[in-house]
C-alpha cells in the first residue's frame, strides 16, 4: 500500500518536475514538519494535555507558543526557499574517477539558507549553508561505468530551527556517461590494426608534410595545428590541414583483440582512445557490433567513450 | 557543541535547585555530581561515554531519585526522572540526531517547572531557557553566527508569545480530561494542631498566604481588625489543640444580602482550608462552608485559587445542644490546677461572661504580660500554669490557649480559631495581601441566647497588633525581622527596598490575578463583555481568523523585507542610464557616463560629479550621503525636464 503510493508519487514528480530548470514557487514547493518538527508537535500536544489537566495557564501558553513557532517556521521556511531558481548548466560526462558531474546554477535574489541537494547517485547529500548571490554548483556523481539517467534532484532546506522540511525536485531527463577509467595497456601492439582494408599492423603510406588548406577551427581540434599567425592578424582561429593526412597513420582499436575481464578490456580501450587522441592519431574503433571508421577529434573521442560506457 | 551541552546541564541544575522543586538533598547532590562530571568530561574534551557506564549511572540515579523524593509525590518523581534522563542524554549525545532529541525534549522538560511554581520569575526563567534552546536549534544548522541566530529568535519568540497570549484569551478552554496527581508542595503558616507551649521560636515566613479584594471603604482604611478564620480547634489535651471533627462537614448557609461579597485569591497551601471573615458561604464551585462557617475546598489547594466569599447568616444559632456544650467545655482536669483555681476565683467574683472576661483582661494587663515571638519553652507538664504564673510572655497561641482553657474550666464553651490577622493594603491596586507571618490564633466563646463571639486575648497585651499587618507593627520590628531571615520584608526599614518590595508584590498580584487565575469563568465573562452574549461562542472562529490574517500579513511583510536592497548610488545610476536613448545596461559605468555626457552636454559637469561620487562610493568604500543623494536627484530631474522640453 505504502509502496504503491510511493510509486504513484514518484511518477507524479517525474511528470511534473521534468525540465531543465525550476523556479521554487507555491506550486513547486512541498513543505511539511521535519522529523524534529514531528517530535516538536508531540511535545506540544503533551504540554497541552498537561496544561488542560492541571488547568495551568502557563503550560497551555507554552503549548500555544510552540504551535505559533511551528507556523512561523513554516512561513520562514517557505519564504527562504521560494523565488530561487535552479537551472541545469551542463551535464559533464567523465571517467568514473574524474568523476562525472552535473553543473547547476542556483540563482536567488535573497539569501537562501541551508540548502541540501540530493540525488540517487550522490554518496551523501550536498549541503550548502548560504547562497547569497547566484552561484554555479558542480554536483559530482559517484557512479559505476555506464550510461545513467541523471534523474531526480531533490532540493531541501530545514531552515529555520530545523523544524520544517521545505523541498522541491528537478527531474533531468538527460543521460550522463561514466566512462571507464583508463587503464594503461601492456598488451602487445597487435591490438593496433591499420587502415580498413589492409591487415598490416600499420599502414606504411608515407607521410606527406605538404600544406593543403586552412579550415575553421572546431571544438576538439588539435591546438598544435592552429595557425597562430592568422589568429594574431585577424583573431580568427584557423587550423592547418596537410596533404595526405588521412592516410597517414591509422590505428584500429578492437575490443575483441584485447585481453582481460570485460571491465579491464573497456578500461584499456578507453586508455588507447585517450592516447590516440593526445598524439593526434587517426583511429578506428570497434566494440562488439558498434563500429566507427577512422577519425579524430573531440566528437569522435566522445562517441567512442560513450560507446564504451554504454557497453 | 560545548556551549550547548553546558547550557543544558546548567538549566537542568537550575530547575533542580529552584527552591520550590523539593527533590530532596540526595537528588540535588546527584544532579550536581552529574553536572561536575559533565564539565570535567568537556574540559578533557572527551565525548561519548560507554553505554554500560551510563546505564549503570541511570539505574543508580533512579534509585537515588526514588529514595530522595519518595513514591508518594508522583509528579515530583516524574519530573526528577525526566531531568535525570535529559542530563544523561546530554552527557551521552554525540551525533546531530541525539542533540536534536535533547533540544526537542527540552521543550517539555523546562516548562515542567510550571507544575511547581507559576510565579512571574519562573515564567521569565523558562521563557529565557526556551529562547536559548531555540537559538541552539538555529545554530545547529550552522547557517549563521550565534548573534544572528539570537536576533532571529528574539523577534520570533516575542511574536509567538503575543500570539499565544491571544490564543489563551480567545480560544475556548477545554475542561480537564482526567484528574492528575498534583505535586506536593507549599507549606502554610496554619497547622491543624496548635501547640504553642513547645515552640521556642516562631519561625516566620514572608510568603504570601492569600490576597483579598474588598470593596468596603471602612475596611480599607484599617478601622476594623481583619480576622480571617480558617481552622477551628475544639479539643485540648493540656498540651495542644486539635482540629474539630466538624471542620469538614459541609453545611449550606443562607447568605446575608446586606453585606457585599468579596474575592480571595489563595496561594497553594496543600490543605483544603480557605479563609474568610466571619461566618461565610461561597458561590464558587468546589468551595463549601463548614458547620463553623469557615470555608474549605473539596480537594487540596495545589495551585493558586480564586473564590468569592459571601457573608452568611450562621450566627443566628443561639442555642447549644448538650453534646456540643460538653465538647466545648472539656479539659483535662488533672493538668494546670493553678490556672483552674484562678478561673474559679474569678468566676465567683463575677456574674456574666462579659464580666469574667473583664477580670481576666485586667489580670493580664496588671501582671504585665508581654508579646514575643521567641518564648521560653515550657518544662512542666502544667504548661498553662507555667506560662500564666512564671514566664508571662508568649505569642498569640499562648494567650488564646490559656484563655480558652480557663473559660472551659468554669463551664463557658470556648474554642480556638486559627487564621490570619491583619493585611497589608495596596492602595494603588486596591487589594490586601496577607502573608504567612500574619498567622494568628484567637478564641471564640459561646454565650447562651447570643451565640458564638470572638475574643482576642493577644490584643490585651499588644493592642497595636490588631491594625494592619505584622510587618507594619513597630515594637516587634527587630524580633520580627530576626525571625524572618533573609528576605525583602526584613529590610522594610529602607524606603527604597520597601518600595521595591511593594512594587514586586503589585506585579505578582497582577500576574496571579490575570494570568494564573484566568479560567473558563473569567474567559466567558470577558468574551461576553467584548463580543456580546450571542457572539461569544464564535470566539474560537474569530481567533483562528485573526491568526490567519496576522500570518498572511506577516508572510507578505517578510517577503517585502527579504528583497535585497540596492545601495543608493546604484539606484541613481540605474535611473540615469534608463534616461539614455541607448541601452547602457551592459556598458561599464565610466563609459556610460561618457555617453550620457555626449547626449546631455548641459549636464556634463553634474554627470562628472555624479560619477566621482559614484566611484568614491562603489570603489573606495566612501559613504553616499545626503548631499550626494540631493545632487543625484537634481541631476536626474534636470535631465528629465530637458527631455520633456525637447519632445
UniProtKB/TrEMBL annotation, chain B:
<keyword id="KW-1133">Transmembrane helix</keyword>
<feature type="transmembrane region" description="Helical">
    <location>
        <begin position="538"/>
        <end position="558"/>
    </location>
</feature>
<dbReference type="InterPro" id="IPR002931">
    <property type="entry name" value="Transglutaminase-like"/>
</dbReference>
<feature type="transmembrane region" description="Helical">
    <location>
        <begin position="12"/>
        <end position="37"/>
    </location>
</feature>
<protein>
    <submittedName>
        <fullName>DUF3488 domain-containing transglutaminase family protein</fullName>
    </submittedName>
</protein>
<dbReference type="InterPro" id="IPR021878">
    <property type="entry name" value="TgpA_N"/>
</dbReference>
<dbReference type="InterPro" id="IPR038765">
    <property type="entry name" value="Papain-like_cys_pep_sf"/>
</dbReference>
<dbReference type="Pfam" id="PF11992">
    <property type="entry name" value="TgpA_N"/>
</dbReference>
<feature type="transmembrane region" description="Helical">
    <location>
        <begin position="49"/>
        <end position="69"/>
    </location>
</feature>
<feature type="transmembrane region" description="Helical">
    <location>
        <begin position="103"/>
        <end position="132"/>
    </location>
</feature>
<keyword id="KW-0812">Transmembrane</keyword>
<keyword id="KW-0472">Membrane</keyword>
<dbReference type="InterPro" id="IPR052901">
    <property type="entry name" value="Bact_TGase-like"/>
</dbReference>
<feature type="transmembrane region" description="Helical">
    <location>
        <begin position="152"/>
        <end position="171"/>
    </location>
</feature>
<dbReference type="Pfam" id="PF01841">
    <property type="entry name" value="Transglut_core"/>
</dbReference>
<feature type="domain" description="Transglutaminase-like">
    <location>
        <begin position="388"/>
        <end position="459"/>
    </location>
</feature>
Amino acid at each position: 500500500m505504502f509502496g504503491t503510493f510511493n510509486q504513484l508519487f514518484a511518477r507524479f514528480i517525474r511528470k511534473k518536475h521534468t525540465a531543465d530548470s525550476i523556479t521554487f514557487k507555491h506550486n513547486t514547493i512541498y513543505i511539511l514538519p521535519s522529523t524534529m518538527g514531528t517530535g516538536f508537535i508531540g511535545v506540544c500536544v503533551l504540554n497541552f494535555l498537561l496544561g488542560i489537566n492541571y488547568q495551568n495557564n502557563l503550560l497551555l501558553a507554552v503549548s500555544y507558543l510552540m504551535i505559533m513557532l511551528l507556523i512561523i517556521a513554516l512561513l520562514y521556511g517557505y519564504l527562504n526557499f521560494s523565488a530561487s531558481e535552479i537551472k541545469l548548466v551542463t551535464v559533464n560526462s567523465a571517467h568514473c574517477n574524474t568523476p562525472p558531474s552535473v553543473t547547476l546554477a542556483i540563482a536567488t535574489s535573497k539569501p537562501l539558507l541551508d540548502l541540501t541537494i540530493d540525488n540517487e547517485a550522490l554518496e551523501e547529500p550536498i549541503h550548502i549553508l548560504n547562497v547569497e548571490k547566484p552561484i554555479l554548483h558542480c554536483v559530482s556523481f559517484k557512479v559505476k561505468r555506464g550510461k545513467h539517467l541523471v534523474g531526480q534532484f531533490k532540493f531541501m532546506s530545514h531552515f529555520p530551527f530545523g523544524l520544517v522540511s521545505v523541498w522541491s525536485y528537478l527531474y533531468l531527463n538527460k543521460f550522463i556517461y561514466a566512462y571507464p577509467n583508463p587503464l594503461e595497456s601492456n598488451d602487445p601492439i597487435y591490438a593496433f590494426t591499420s587502415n580498413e582494408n589492409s591487415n598490416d599492423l600499420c599502414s606504411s603510406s608515407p607521410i606527406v608534410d605538404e600544406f593543403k588548406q586552412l579550415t575553421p577551427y572546431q571544438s576538439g581540434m588539435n591546438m598544435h595545428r592552429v595557425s597562430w599567425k592568422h589568429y594574431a592578424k585577424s583573431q580568427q582561429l584557423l587550423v592547418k590541414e596537410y596533404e595526405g593526412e588521412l592516410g597517414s597513420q591509422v590505428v584500429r582499436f578492437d575490443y575483441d583483440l584485447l585481453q582481460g575481464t570485460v571491465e579491464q578490456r573497456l578500461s584499456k580501450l578507453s586508455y588507447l582512445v585517450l592516447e590516440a587522441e593526445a598524439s593526434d592519431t587517426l583511429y578506428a574503433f570497434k566494440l562488439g557490433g558498434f563500429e566507427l571508421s577512422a577519425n579524430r577529434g573531440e566528437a569522435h573521442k566522445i562517441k567512442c567513450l560513450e560507446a564504451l560506457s554504454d557497453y | 557543541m560545548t556551549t550547548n551541552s553546558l547550557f543544558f546541564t546548567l538549566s537542568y541544575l537550575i530547575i533542580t535547585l529552584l527552591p520550590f522543586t523539593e527533590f530532596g538533598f540526595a537528588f540535588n547532590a546527584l544532579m550536581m555530581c552529574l553536572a561536575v562530571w559533565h564539565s570535567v568530561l568537556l574540559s578533557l574534551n572527551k565525548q561519548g561515554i560507554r553505554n554500560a557506564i551510563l546505564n549503570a549511572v541511570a539505574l543508580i540515579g533512579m534509585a537515588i531519585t526514588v529514595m530522595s523524593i519518595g513514591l508518594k509525590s508522583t509528579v515530583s518523581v516524574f519530573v526528577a526522572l525526566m531531568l535525570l534522563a535529559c542530563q544523561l542524554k546530554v552527557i551521552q549525545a554525540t551525533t546531530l540526531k541525539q542533540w536534536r532529541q535533547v533540544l526537542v525534549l527540552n521543550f517539555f522538560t523546562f516548562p515542567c517547572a510550571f507544575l511547581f511554581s507559576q510565579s512571574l520569575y519562573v515564567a521569565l526563567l523558562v521563557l529565557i531557557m526556551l529562547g536559548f534552546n531555540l537559538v541552539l536549534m538555529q545554530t545547529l544548522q550552522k547557517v549563521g553566527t550565534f548573534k544572528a541566530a539570537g536576533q532571529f529568535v528574539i523577534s520570533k519568540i516575542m511574536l509567538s508569545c503575543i500570539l499565544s497570549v491571544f490564543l489563551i484569551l480567545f480560544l475556548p478552554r477545554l475542561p480537564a480530561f482526567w484528574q492528575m496527581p498534583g505535586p506536593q508542595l507549599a507549606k502554610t503558616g496554619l497547622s491543624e494542631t496548635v501547640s504553642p507551649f513547645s515552640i521556642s521560636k516562631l519561625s516566620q515566613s514572608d510568603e504570601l498566604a492569600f490576597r483579598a479584594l474588598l470593596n468596603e471603604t471602612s475596611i480599607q482604611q484599617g478601622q476594623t481588625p481583619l480576622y480571617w478564620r480558617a481552622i477551628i480547634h475544639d479539643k485540648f489535651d493540656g498540651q495542644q489543640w486539635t482540629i474539630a471533627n466538624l471542620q469538614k462537614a459541609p453545611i449550606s448557609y443562607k447568605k446575608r444580602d446586606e453585606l457585599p461579597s468579596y474575592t480571595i485569591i489563595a496561594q497553594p497551601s496543600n490543605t483544603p482550608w480557605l479563609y474568610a471573615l466571619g461566618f461565610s458561604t461561597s458561590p464558587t464551585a468546589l468551595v463549601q462552608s463548614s458547620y463553623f462557617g469557615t470555608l474549605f475546598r473539596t480537594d487540596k489547594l495545589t495551585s493558586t485559587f480564586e473564590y468569592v466569599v459571601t457573608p452568611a447568616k450562621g450566627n443566628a444559632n443561639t442555642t447549644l445542644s448538650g453534646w456540643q456544650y460538653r465538647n466545648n467545655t472539656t479539659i483535662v482536669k488533672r493538668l494546670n490546677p493553678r490556672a483552674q483555681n484562678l478561673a474559679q476565683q474569678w468566676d465567683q467574683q463575677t456574674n456574666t461572661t462579659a464580666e469574667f472576661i473583664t477580670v481576666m483582661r485586667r489580670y493580664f494587663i496588671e501582671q504585665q504580660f508581654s508579646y514575643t515571638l521567641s518564648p521560653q519553652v515550657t518544662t512542666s507538664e502544667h504548661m498553662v500554669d507555667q506560662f500564666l504564673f512564671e514566664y508571662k510572655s508568649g505569642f498569640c497561641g499562648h494567650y488564646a490557649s490559656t484563655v480558652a482553657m480557663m473559660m472551659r474550666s468554669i463551664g463557658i464553651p470556648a474554642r480556638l480559631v486559627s487564621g490570619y490577622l491583619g493585611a497589608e493594603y495596596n492602595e494603588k491596586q486596591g487589594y490586601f495581601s496577607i502573608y504567612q507571618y500574619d498567622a494568628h490564633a484567637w478564641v471564640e466563646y459561646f454565650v447562651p441566647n447570643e451565640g458564638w463571639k470572638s475574643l482576642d486575648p493577644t490584643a490585651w497585651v499588644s493592642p497595636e497588633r490588631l491594625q494592619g499587618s505584622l510587618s507594619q507593627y513597630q515594637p516587634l520590628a527587630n524580633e520580627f525581622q530576626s525571625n524572618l531571615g533573609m528576605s525583602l520584608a526584613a529590610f522594610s526599614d529602607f524606603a527604597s527596598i520597601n518600595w521595591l518590595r511593594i512594587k514586586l508584590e503589585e506585579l505578582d498580584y497582577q500576574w496571579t490575578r490575570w494570568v494564573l487565575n484566568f479560567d473558563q469563568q473569567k474567559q466567558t465573562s470577558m468574551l461576553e463583555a467584548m463580543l456580546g452574549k450571542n457572539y461569544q461562542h464564535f470566539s474560537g472562529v474569530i481567533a483562528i481568523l485573526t491568526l490567519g490574517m496576522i500570518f498572511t500579513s506577516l508572510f507578505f511583510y517578510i517577503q517585502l523585507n527579504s528583497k535585497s536592497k540596492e545601495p543608493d548610488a546604484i539606484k541613481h545610476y540605474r535611473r540615469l542610464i534608463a534616461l539614455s536613448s541607448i541601452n547602457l545596461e551592459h556598458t561599464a559605468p565610466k563609459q556610460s557616463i561618457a555617453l550620457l555626457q555626449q547626449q546631455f552636454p548641459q549636464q556634463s559637469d553634474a554627470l562628472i560629479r555624479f560619477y566621482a561620487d559614484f566611484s568614491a562610493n562603489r570603489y573606495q568604500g566612501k559613504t553616499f550621503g545626503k548631499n550626494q543623494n540631493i545632487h543625484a536627484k537634481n541631476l536626474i530631474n534636470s535631465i528629465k525636464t530637458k527631455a520633456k522640453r525637447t519632445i
